[in-house]
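Appendix B. Extra example for self-study. Work through it before the problem class; the solution is given directly after the inputs so you can check yourself.
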Amino acid sequence: MTGRAGSHPVTNGATSAMTTLAREMKASYAFVERNFFLTKRYWGWEVGWLIYALAGALSITLIGQDQGDQRLLISLLIGAVFWNYVSIVFSFIAETVAWERWEGTLEYTFMAPIRRYTQLVGSTLYAVIYGLIHTGFVLLVLVLFFGLDLSRADFLTAAIFTLLGSLSLVGIGMMAAILPLLYVERGAQMTFVLQSLLLLFSGVYFRIEILPHWMQVVSAFSPGTYLLDGVRRGLMDGTPVTSLIHDVWPLLVMAIVLIPVGVWTFGRAERYAKRTGKLKRVG
Amino acid sequence: MPALLVDHVTKRFQTGRKKKPVIAINDVSLRIERGEVYGVLGANGGGKSTLIRLVSTLLTLDTGRVEVFGYDIERDEMSVKRIINRVSVDAAFFKKLSPAENLLYAARLYGLDAGSARQEAVRILSRLGIKESRLSRPLEQMSRGMQQKVAIARSILTSPTLLLLDEPTTGLDPRSKLDVQTFVEELRDSHDATIVLTTHDLVEAERLCDRIGILNDGRLIVEGTADELKELVAQDHDQEPTLQAVFMTYTGRSLDDDVEEDGAADDE
Ligand SMILES: Nc1ncnc2c1ncn2[C@@H]1O[C@H](COP(=O)(O)OP(=O)(O)OP(=O)(O)O)[C@@H](O)[C@H]1O
Ligand SMILES: [Mg+2]
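Solution. C-alpha cells for the complete assembly:
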C-alpha cells in the first residue's frame, strides 16, 4: 500500500530490526525518566521509607547481636537487606502500574506504539536501580552501626549474585504487576502475598535445611534461595563466584525463563483487561 | 481509502456472572473519509466512549473489523497506534508531575525528540491560551479546563492523522470551549487530520462536524450532515428542523433502559 498517511520508509529486515530496537530502547527510557520525576516529587516520602527500612533491618540484625553470634548477625543482616531490596523492587513495580491505573494514564501508555516488554523493562529497570541505591544505603548504615569488618568479603561475588537474582525478581515482579492492572483498589497490596512467600521459601532469616522436606523442594524454585546463598558466601567467607557455579546456573535459568514468562503473562492480562473493559476508570 | 472504517462491530460487556451482557456497541458500521470531522452523538450510555476505545485499541472487538487508513487495528496494531491519538473526558495525567514532565513522557513514548516536543507543546498550549510559565508547576494545581487543554496538546503532539476526541469540551467554560473548537477547526483545515468527536453540545456538533451519527443503545440509528438529519426529522417525524429535535427523536428511551438493566437481573 502506498500514499498512506504516516507511512514509513521501506527498509530491509536487518536495518528495520535495528531501528525498532533503538526506538524501543529510547521509549523504555521514558519510563525510567518518568519514575525518576515521580521519586523526585515525593522525596519527603522517600526519606520516611528509608527510615522504615533502616529500623526494620536494624531490629532483625540486633537479634544476632543479642545472641552474641557474629556469624548469625551478618547472616541476618544480609537477609534483612535482601528483604528490603525485594520489597522495594516489588512494591515499585506494582505501585507504578496501580498508579497509572488510578490516574487513568495507563490507557495512554497502552495506546502508545511501543511493545509491552519495552514498558515492563523500562519500569522494572528503574525499580532495580532505585532498589539498589536504597538498599546500598541501608547496608552501609548497618555495616557502620555494627562496625563490621568486611575485609575478607568478596564484593564481586555479592554484586554478581545481586544482579543475576534481580533478573528473576523482575520476572516475578512483572507477574505481580498483573494484580494492580486488573484490580485497581487492592491489587498492589496483594503483591505482599507473593513477597511473603519469597520470605518464607528463600531462607531469608534461617537455613533452608531446617524446613520440612516439601518446603525445601519449594525453596529450590525460589531465586531468593540462590541469591542469598551466593551473597552470604561472598560476604561472609570471601568465596569467589567461580566456586559458586552451582548457585549461578539456577539463577541464569530462572532469569531466562521468568522474564519472558512475566512479559507473556502481563500481555495475557492486558488482553483480558481489553476484552472485559477493565482498563477504564471514567468516561 | 477511508480514514476510518468500522465494519459490523459488536462489543458486549459481561457485568456479572448471572447477568445478561450489556451490548455497548451493536453491529455498527461506518466509514469516515480523510479530512472529515465526524460527530458521534447519543444519550449517556449510548456507546460513544466504547466506540472510541475500540478504535483506540483499548478494547478488543467481539466481532467485526476496524481499519485506520487501511491498517487493520488487530493485525497492524503498531501502525495504527502510531497514527492515532485520543483525548478522553477526564484529563488522565500524573497529577503530581508538571505538564512539561507529562508531555515529555508522552513524547518519548512516540519516539519524539525531547527538545522539539517541548517547543511544539509550548506552541500548542499558547494557542489554547496557556502560558509557558505554567508548564513546570504540578498539574494538580491547574483547573479542569486547563488540564483538558494540556490533554489536547498531548494528543496533537504526536501529529496523529486520526484524532479521537471523546467529549473534549465537557466541563469547559464558554471561552475555553470556544478556544478548543477553534483549535479543532484549525486542525482540520491546516493539519490534514481526520477527527472523530463525541459531544453532548449540539451547537458544537453543528458547528464542527461535517457529518453526524447518532448512537443509541449501541446502535448507529442515523447518520448524515446536520442539515440532512434536520430535514429527516421534519419529514418523517413531523418535528421542528433542529438538531435538538433530531437528538430527542433518535435517542428516546436509552436512559430508562440503562436504569432498568441495573435493577433487574433478567428482564427479558
Ligand atoms: N468497561 C466497561 N465495563 C462494563 N460496562 C461498560 C464498560 N464501558 C461501558 N460499559 C457499558 O456500555 C454502555 C455504553 O457505555 P459508554 O461509556 O460507551 O457510553 P457513552 O455513550 O460514552 O456515555 P456518556 O455520554 O455517559 O459518556 C453502557 O451501558 C455502559 O454501562
Ligand atoms: Mg462517554
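Self-check: Confidence is low (pLDDT under 50) at residues 1-9 of chain A. If your reasoning did not lead you there, revisit section 3.
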